[in-house]
Design goal:
Radius of gyration: 26 Å
Order of helices and strands: HHHHHHHHHH
Largest sheet: none
Distance between the termini: 79 Å
Number of strands: 0
Length: 294
């Protein structure tokens, strides 16, 4: 008779793995709430040109300095029933709301990307992605208050996102969150170009095409790069546009088509290229990338 088969291997120690995962998610949630507490400070002080570290956190009503126990995200506000312990005046519910929002955002990012916190590369990628997310959320808060987006936060978020795309991602991360640096940059430029062109087409619709012309690069250059990229691709289009920028700088004249002509010609070139064998999606993406880069 044949010998009995070997017993199946013992299952992995799932309780330890689950405990580690739970601890990681709890840590990222607490970190998000703490960052959200600081985000409240940044959103209030940055537009006013105030220091982010001095003076320490105080009651907005009586200016009393808050103790460490009064700075615990969300819980302190709930324990104090939304009132200052000193003057008993109400404290805006925006503070715990922002803290909870950041906690949920950090938790959601961790669930989506599933970083291995024991891997230096994945941990650094998560940290950079969380930094980019935090900057965008703070910029949104400031925009709600002042109708202005701070360049430092927007460009900082772009830089952090691009740096994150250079680092290894967990294989379980969704593709749209694990793109390489080139793809991330192309999508960022395309999104920026789409917003810029949307503004110009809206101006054409309401017949207000006079855009600010100050500075070295103007909206005319943006439209030129967009139109040329639909035909030549973004690299050649940006090179030609850069040449026109130099010509404008030296001569002080503007050698280009009127803005309405560019806005009409760009989609025509995309359609013509498609008829000649160049996919319209590729030409349109090239045009958006060139617009964003300009």
């Amino acid at each position: 008779t044949s010998p009995p088969p070997d017993p199946p291997p013992a299952p992995p120690n799932r309780p330890d793995m689950d405990a580690f995962t739970l601890a990681s998610l709890t840590l990222t949630t607490l970190l998000g709430a703490s960052v959200g507490s600081f985000a409240n400070v940044v959103a209030y002080r940055l537009p006013r040109g105030q220091s982010l570290s001095n003076p320490p956190s105080r009651c907005p009503r009586c200016e009393r300095r808050l103790t460490p126990l009064e700075l615990v995200p969300v819980l302190s506000w709930l324990a104090l029933r939304g009132k200052c312990r000193g003057c008993r005046q109400p404290i805006s519910s925006r503070y715990p709301t922002v803290e909870a929002l950041f906690a949920i955002a950090y938790l959601g990012l961790a669930l989506l990307t599933q970083p291995d916190l024991t891997s230096g590369g994945e941990l650094a990628r998560y940290a950079l992605q969380a930094t980019a997310l935090s900057m965008l959320l703070v910029a949104a808060l400031i925009d709600l208050d002042t109708k202005h987006l701070p360049d430092t936060l927007v460009y900082g978020a772009i830089a952090a996102g691009l740096l994150a795309s250079l680092l290894p991602a967990n294989p379980a991360t969704p593709e749209y969150l694990a793109r390489p640096a080139g793809g991330t940059l192309a999508l960022a430029l395309a999104a920026a170009g789409a917003l810029a062109l949307l503004e110009r087409y809206a101006a054409l619709a309401i017949r207000r095409l006079r855009a600010p012309q100050g500075g070295l690069i103007t909206s005319d250059h943006l439209l030129m790069a967009t139109t040329l990229a639909a035909l030549l691709g973004p690299v050649r289009a940006l090179a030609v546009t850069a040449a026109f920028v130099l010509i404008d700088t030296k001569s002080g004249s503007r050698l280009r088509l009127p803005q309405p002509a560019h806005l009409i010609l760009a989609p025509v070139l995309v359609a013509a290229g498609h008829a000649l064998g160049r996919p319209a999606s590729v030409a349109a993406l090239d045009a958006l990338i060139a617009a964003g880069a300009t």
